[in-house]
Amino acid sequence: MSSSRDQKKALHERLQRLRAITNSTAIHKASIIVDASKYIEELKQKVATLNQEIGTSSISIDQHHLPAVTVETIDKGFLINVLSEQNCPGLLVSILEAFENLGLDVLDARVSCTDNFQLEAIGGESDDSIDAQVVKQAVLQAIQNWSTEQD
User: Fold this and answer.
1) Residue 62 clears pLDDT 80, i.e. is over it
2) Residue 81 CB: number of other CB atoms within 10 A?
3) CB-side exposure of 38: number of CA atoms within 13 Å?
4) 37 vs 27, 33, 74, CA distance in Å?
5) C-alpha distances in angstroms, 30 versus 3, 18, 24, 86?
6) Which tens digits make up the pLDDT trace of 90-115?
7) What distance in Å separates the CA atoms of residue 98 and residue 52, rounded to the nearest whole number?
């Protein structure tokens, strides 16, 4: 009898953990499992999107040794990430000039140039006509211009 009660208790605890992890508000076991299944599908989609972005970025890094760029739209403007596996002297200046040309104000930034180049910046837009793709293209163009100056 005790073992059956322990098993039910363990199952209940596992379902509650699953409910918490998946941010489910469901109460019934079946609903918690359905919510978990939906959550897993969302995670799979995110992984596929990230793998696609990484694959595209990896190709440009491997073939051209150029930094990878991602730009996301956020409440304040844009979250811009630039990553290179090598140090890139002068690249920060080129990227900041691109921001200036777009009319983006740097609201917050973190930069590391020790062994590699990493930039994470939040750029606030002065007008609403700029979208994430325009920002990404401007940063990529700045990187391309910087790269040709290095050759």
Assistant:
1) no
2) 17
3) 11
4) 15, 6, 28
5) 23, 12, 12, 50
6) 888 999 999 999 888 888 999 988 78
7) 26
